[in-house]
Amino acid sequence: MKILIVDDDPAIRLLLFTVFGEEHDVSVLCDGHNAVSVLSDPNHQFDVVLLDLKMPRLSGEMVLEFLSGWQNIKTKFIIISGFHDEARHFKYPNLVATLAKPFNIKELVRIVETSHQSAAASGA
User: Fold this and answer.
1) What are the sequence ranges of the domains in the chain?
2) FRET label pair with 45: which of 25, 74, 88, 112, CA 20 to 30 Å apart?
3) Tens digits of per-residue pLDDT, 47-93?
4) Is the Cα torsion angle 83, 100, 90, 2 positive or negative in sign?
5) What is the pTM of this model?
């Protein structure tokens, strides 16, 4: 599975890379602006994006807003944020979960694996 981590906190980026890096192809970015640049490439092939909500330059919500109008996006998004209550109300087609910081690692791994399996089962 190919995972993109987008978070402005270096400790969170390192933690998530450590959790997923051994078994998956993981890339790490520090802001939403870079995420939009990478995800705008139709050949990016990321299965799952772990996305912080509040970041400098471009927020996670703006990343989702920007990409929501695109057709045929198969990438699944999971928001991990200290602003979980705000994110729970988002209605973006590829947003599969929101987790509050601090989060449970086992729960996150389960959500990532489940979102990838359901996408694969549906042919996405």
Assistant:
1) 2-92
2) 88
3) 999 999 989 889 988 898 888 776 677 899 999 988 656 656 677 77
4) positive
5) 0.89
